[in-house]
Amino acid sequence: MLPAALAALTIWVLAIDIPQPTSDWLDASWQTVLVEAHLHQRQFGREIAFTLGPWGFLTMHFYPIEGLDWKFWWEGPGKLALAAGIIALSQSLPSTRRWLFFLAFAVLGQLFADTFGIVFVTLAVVGGLMRPGTPRWALGALVVGMAFLAAVKFTLCLLALGGTVLAAASLFARGQSARALGLAGAFSLAFLGWWLAAGQEPGQLLAYFQVSREISAGYPWAMSAEESWPVFLAGVTVALSHVIYAATFMRGVPADRRCFVWPAVLFLCAAWGLAWKHGFTRADGHVLGFFYFCLISAIAVPAWLRPGQRGSWFDAIPFLCVLGLGIADAGFLAQTQRLVAFRWLGNVRAIARLGTFRAEYEARQHSEEAKFALPPLQKAIGNSTVDWVSYEQGVLLLNGLNYRPRPVFQSYIAYTSGLMKRNRDFLKSPDAPEFVIFRLQTLDARFPAQDDALLLAELPRRYDLTLNTGDTLLFRKKSIPASPQTFTRQPVGTASPILGEEIRLPDHGEQALWLQADFPLTRLGRLRALLYRPPILRMVVTQEDGQQSNFRVIPPIAAEGFLIQPFLETTSDYAALARGEGQKRLRSIRFEPARTSEAKYWTRASVRFFRVPELPAVPSSSAQPSSFLQQVASSGVANLVPLSARSEVGMNYAALADHQVLVVHAPGEVIFKPEPSIRKLAGEYGLAEGTYTGGAHTDGAEFSVECEFADGRRQVLWQRALDPVSQPADRGVQMFSVELPPETTRIIMRTLPGPKGDTQWDWTYWGRLNFSP
Q1: Which one, of 590, 536, 561, lies nearest residue 450 by Cα?
Q2: Distance of alpha carbon 703 from its chain centroid, rounded?
């Protein structure tokens, strides 16, 4: 009994997540919004469209002060109960497996919070609900725990529901119909109880399931990320091993055990498939979670399915999973011991200073509030309702504004027609906020105008641009409401290109141009999407001056459409659209597979163009620099207006202590044409704080300054790589200074990804650029 209690305490201490105050960056923002949604009793399904359920806010890392009491209850008694349940489930394992199970959970479990719920539900179903002889009280405790996790996340809900149904089917097959009905009824009542306890209306359950299904269906198309070939091969090896084991095991099951084993194996296959899709759809850190889940299940499951029998070749799977962890992150295993020790000591110290924790937390929160204070917006908005169209809602909440979010509250998640229409309809409804704060932001190098495409087209029709701070726009609802109808789309052209074929944009007068496109997959492509993930599609756009940019295109968004003209690349471009201007014009576009070898997955596309009469976009004079480039100088980022600035993701401004910097997400470049008398260039550069704090994991970035001569020759004057995660000296603002050679005609300032080529966290910036004689 004592070793089990010590094991549960060990797992509990390691599993504690010490919260952080609200901040501005992406993860901090959406996590804080979910906490805020609970505090304001927002209804999931109608007011909040997200795959985390109404209790999902407990698993967040970033918390406003008002939610700390809930976090304390979850990290204390809540996680202690889960840890006790995990250890209790392991008690039926043979001694060696039990200690391997505990060691894997203690060392690795706290590193994969996203996978923890999948592991618990899987073990609860196979090691509890489906095992003959489980006491009724234990079944009740497991059902209550599973029902709670089902209200935490939609995928856990599906897994728990499927496991309960199969467990009930197993009981029916064994002639225990009353117990089967009791199990199904207990789970349903427990889930409904948790739903109501979270302040949710029973009538919103169907809406929650519908919107969660839609988000989940669009996720592989919009959020996928690629892994290296060694990681893929390691994952396929582990996955195929599970498939082969399940197939061979099912054939040798005695007839008297089939009622238990077959439902258990069927459920395990579903759990393994879920872990595979979760890990290899967005194959960044998620692949580590796949290997971890397979490691835990490979240790525990054989002993439950074949009690008393000797080992088999499947016992080698844990070693394959450890190998996969090492391949996915070469330094992971080497750092594991240090990370575990660091987390253990940190959590013990946090528990020890619990009495002063709240005061320290409030001080840090107030520091964040001062850091991101926006007095002009606070003054203009006052107590009126406001939404924030970008992924930095944390800034809005830090400013104490009256937040009224649209259902899909982060625009990069509005990646299907239904999700986009939810936000558009909210903007048209009486519940729409008085103000909208806007920043054009996206991720994964997407074409910026895709995210929340319908809302982007409706916003200028229903709101007036009242304030432009350079990196942020403030819109106010028009005093005379727009027509209840949505914007119209008048056909102006079609195309049916093969991938790689250039498409010239049709004439559309002085109005915006809308693009719709369908990209059917071949049979092979559909099979790949089902078993793995859909292939990634790119769009190369060519501006009138010949400059090209490469962006990711999301097919479900393209099917509904988005603004293609004027070219919306930055917040300033959108401000121009709101004024009826079209600063940047595209000449042509073409679609390409992300990899040449993936062309076989696509058939011929169907592209349609539409004029949008309600959105005037009068071309600005090409003789004048764009207002965005002028803003680079007027904002103090540089003392010279650049010739051009570009990034695959986009650009915007960010505020440091007392000045602004230009965020040029790597890969990107800013080009200047200095006067012949200019001989020196100095300035600052760095990676935004959110790229290496609060769980972020940039692999660094490279900065360089090149000069170009009249004959086209180029010379690298300065370059430096930053790695703020592992090198503390690379954090914060960095300074540089270079001498410009005689006859320099242009200066090219570049930002490039780190050594792994992972651009996800590369929020690189330049600031206080000073050209001098």
Answers
A1: 561
A2: 26
DSSP annotation of 521 reads B
- Identify the DSSP state of 125: I
In this structure, the chain runs to a length of 773
Do residues 367 and 5 touch, judged by C-beta distance below 8 A? no
- 240 exposed, middle or buried (CB, 10 Å; 0-12, 13-18, 19+)? exposed
CA distance 383 to 413: 28
β-strands 618-619, 581-582 pairing: parallel
Residue 570 carries which DSSP code?
Answer: B
State the CB neighbour count (10 A cutoff) for residue 133: 6
What letter represents residue 331's amino acid? G
Q: What are the tokens at 356?
A: 């002063």
- In whole angstroms, what is the distance from residue 164 CA to residue 150 CA? 11
CA distance 744 to 707: 6
**Is residue 566 classed as helix, strand or coil in its secondary structure?**
coil
**Tokens encoding 91:** 């008690």
Residues 424 and 407: beta-carbon distance below 8 Å: no
Measure the CA–CA gap between 88 and 68, rounded to whole angstroms.
Answer: 29
Can you tell me the distance from the alpha carbon of 378 to that of 400, in angstroms, rounded to the nearest whole number? 8
- CB-based contacts of 207: which residues, under 8 Å, 6+ apart? 44, 45, 46
Residues 106-127 pLDDT 10s: 777 666 666 778 888 988 898 8
Burial class (CB in 10 A: 0-12, 13-18, 19+), 624: exposed
State pTM to two decimals.
0.79
Whether 353 shows a pLDDT value over 50: the answer reads yes
Q: Are 480 and 461 in contact (CB under 8 A)?
A: no
The pLDDT value recorded for residue 212 is: 95
Contact 688/654 with Cβ under 8 angstroms? yes
| Tokens 């005093």, residue located | 479
Structure tokens at 364: 């840090």
Nearest alpha-carbon partner for 272 in 302, 248, 304, 240:
240
Taken in order 469, 473, 474, 479, the sign of the CA dihedral is positive
The crossing angle, in degrees rounded to 10, of helices 332-352 and 317-328 is 90
pLDDT digits (tens, 9 = 90+) for 575-629: 888 888 777 889 999 999 999 999 999 999 999 999 998 888 877 543 344 566 7
Taking alpha carbons only, the member of 748, 28, 15, 2 closest to residue 393 is 28
Tokens read off for 269: 């296959």
Pairing of strands 714-722, 701-709: antiparallel
State whether residue 318 is helix, strand or coil: helix
